[in-house]
Amino acid sequence: MKPFFTLLILLLMFIIAPSKAQRNITLGSFLTTQGVNTSWISPSGDFAFGFQLIDANNSYLLAVWFDKTVDKTLAWYAKTNTQIPELVVVPSGSRLQLSSNGLSLLDPGGHELWNAQVTGAAYANMLDTGNFVLAGKDGSTKWGTFDSPADTILPTQGLVTGVQLYSRLTHTDYSNGRFILQVKDGSLEFDLVAVPSGNQYATYWSTKTDGNGSQLLFNATGRVYFTLKDRTEINITSAIMGSMVDYYQRATLDPDGVFRQYVYPKKEAVRGWNNIGWTTVDLVPRNICESITSQDGSGVCGFNSFCAFNWNLNETVDCRCPPRYSFIDQAQKYKGCKADFQPQSCDLDEETMIDQFDLIPMNGVDWPLADYEAFTSVGMDDCKKLCLTDCFCAVVVFNNGNCWKKKLPMSNGRMDSSVDRTLYLKVPKNNNSQSQLNSNSIKWKKEKKYWILGSSLLLGSFFLVCILLISLIVFGNYFATESKKTDLSKQSSSTGGLPLKSFTYEELREATGGFCEEIGRGGSGVVYKGQLQDQVGTHVAVKKIDRVLPDIEKEFAVEIQTIGWTFHKNLVRLLGFCNEGNERLLVYEFMPNGSLTGFLFDTIWPSWYLRVQFALGVARGLLYLHEECSTQIIHCDIKPQNILLDANLTAKISDFGLAKLLQMDQTQTNTGIRGTRGYVAPEWFKNIAITAKVDVYSFGVILLEIVCCRRNVEKDVTNDDRAILTDWANDCYRSGRIDLLVEGDQEASFDIKRVERFLAVALWCIQEDPAMRPTMHKVTQMLDGAVEIAMPPDPASYISSLQ
């Protein structure tokens, strides 16, 4: 009898559980901010509706969220029913009640804070689409959260005339931000608005379908498009993700004004992996920094700041302050930057003005609307003097005899490679030794506490990562084995990683025009420029792998998915692949500015500021590969040719992860040396295990090249002592003549303390003994000035100790 009762219980559980999960929420039900009734869950458990705590002051939002994602991402939150909807924040002890008249949100004193009024509501339901609805007896929807979105739309949701998406003010402040997405006068448009009034300044992106547009739709396959009255469809994003079974999806108007489409692998949410998050698959507009130029308001970033947008789908806008300026509020950068000095007095005579203030150059930056006076047919010295002797002038621009003066506050600032002029920023002179630190020293002191706090948080997170890695080791073989059983087509469509596209060879042959335009060549293959036949004609770089050995071909798709999971703003993104017959091709995002080689070793040196960004970017990319991605990747061939530059001159590491595809053993040297002469670590030539420290060595060499704007080995130099850069740099460092390394470089000489710091980091990285080299985590800390740097040992001392 016992087996019978067991079977009966299991049968009852099978019958009852689903009906309980899918039951409607009856009238009279309620939610509270604390206790057991804080939310109602959808049948699948994917979504929840209820109260979400948003800060330490016990403030709550009434919201819908993805209940299985690590961060419980909000998809909707309640706002008032006024003309300009305002955020509804409720205190602890508030209560939500369901009645036939709809929903009523009450504070602890019983006063109504918000309502969703309907007539004849019979029940409510949290649907698996993410739509929380009030329904009548006939099942018709009386009201739903899809009808009044906040900053996000979900698959199966639409946006019609009169309904707006308001961006948040910041990622942690859900108040109305500075951007609106709406269907207006037959067009889909993005508008810049004033805070907090909501006054609309200007449209910065539009479908320009005046009078013909109907609605914005996000269909179940992940396609976001705008429909016209004649049923024509205009793609807003180019990503098509397929079934909602594999991915959570959302499209959000982010605080920086960019409309991004995100995906989150469902199976990773089920496993609870906290190193997996939302991945951007497309965005509009392509470059927000260039899209907004408004006479009113500050633009993308705050007044006196400038916008730097790295063309990377996972990267947000970076708002920055010019030298000797700092953010008014570090947590709310949209408020802009203020000068860290007293403005020039208008009571001074011209000679005193010139003696007290100076002009420092800024390359690639512009505030296009700040001009207030212009001159023609003047020389550079006269142009500078016109600004120095004008107490209103904050910045001056000189270009081919033309001179423009700009005054504060400056708006619509942007940094971009297309800006081919040099600005001169007016700052006070300082002759004391402390002021001769780099021009960003004031900013650094203010930001140092954030680094210390960040380091503490990283230390705490380290233990969690250890637990995660142990779990990965235990279960890794199982999942890898299961993955290998799946054929390529299944892997490309149902993998838990980023949805890489599987291209046919014919598609890539057509995209590259028969592989005719070669843009790169290396040990792993040849790279060709191509253009996909998609809605936007995406430019790509197609690498033909010519050295994949037969016994690794079956592992090709598995390793490609590992690379596909590797995302960072300083890594070249893999978009897709081809695994057809004997052909193995990789499709990367196209880097229009080529490699670091062309910039560093040209006749015209890039600015010191830009070189600093190159160094920091490469360091952070390597840190991600070594310590932050799910599977450690040792590059083994770090060199300037493998550092590519996007449209905004952001440095990105290419060719990472190819060692396994090329059957390279990353633990021993018995498969031969991998790397490039001048950048190869000494252990490749010895019977020493190969570790991530080989990349650290290569980075040290590149760092010296970035600082000095010359190759590591120069055969044509007149002084033999300078032929090998690593040796010369070490000599200069130990003799106290660092200035010789940046001789003739005014910007770097002005920032000599940072030059000294970078040089010390490089000398630590190129130590002969791998154990003495720092990790990339330590390297990034030293580069940023977050930790003290001890004097690096002289490499000669290591050599003598071996003799």
TrEMBL record:
EC number: 2.7.11.1
TM stretches of this protein: 450-480
EC top class, as a word: transferase
Keywords: ATP-binding, Disulfide bond, EGF-like domain, Glycoprotein, Kinase, Lectin, Membrane, Nucleotide-binding, Receptor, Serine/threonine-protein kinase, Signal, Transferase, Transmembrane, Transmembrane helix
Membrane topology reported for the UniProt record: Single-pass type I membrane protein
Binding locations of ATP: 544
Protein name according to UniProt: Receptor-like serine/threonine-protein kinase
Species of the source: Leersia perrieri
